Amino acid sequence: MSSSPSKSRPGLTTALAFAAGLLFAVGLALAGMTQPSKVIGFLDVTGAWDPSLAFVMVGAIAVYFAATRFVKGRSAPFAGGHFRLPTRRDLEPKLWIGAGLFGIGWGLAGYCPGPGIASLGTGALSALSFVGSMALGVLLYEGAQRLRGGREPSGSLV
């Protein structure tokens, strides 16, 4: 949904982004998602399965559902500018491949991007290794896209 742009307030945008990121990191830590053993326990459905992260996921889906309804009812973001909501409805192969790689990485490392970045604060070598590998993967993908003459990736790390 697009809306008419309003005056942007970069200071407020930065403060809100920081507060949202901090809240997200604290939530991940409280839920145990920064502990690879907890995540792997959740994924081990044939062994000592720990279903507690399912409640975290259901809670996240509920918050997302409510927030999306709230955003669609507003004409512009609190911090100004305009909303940039997804409009595509198709599922291309890159999405399926990316989702598969995400799942494999999550299962092998016990981290996904958010908890991996949040875990950097603990100084854990596993978190540093995961985030470094993830960043390298992004850079390799973007480099391959440029070599193939594909469009410039948006939201890149470089």
N-to-C series of helices and strands: HHHHHH
Give the fraction of residues assigned to helices.
Answer: 55-70%
Q: Mean pLDDT, as a whole number? A: 83
Strand composition percent: under 5%
Q: How would you sum up the major sheet?
A: none
SS content category: mainly alpha
Total count of helical runs of at least 4 residues: 6
Distance between the termini: 28 Å
Based on CA inertia axes, which overall geometry fits?
globular
Report Rg.
18 Å
What's the β-strand tally? 0
**What count of domains describes the coordinates?**
1
Unreliable spans: none
Description of the molecule:
This protein is mainly α. It has helices spanning 10-31, 36-43, 52-72, 93-109, 113-119, 125-147. The protein has one domain (10-147). It has six helices and no strands. Helix 1 (10-31) packs across helix 5 (113-119), helix 2 crosses helix 4 and helix 5 (113-119) packs across helix 6 (125-147). The longest helix is centred in the C-terminal third of the chain and has 23 residues, at 125-147. The model has no long low-confidence stretch (mean pLDDT 83).
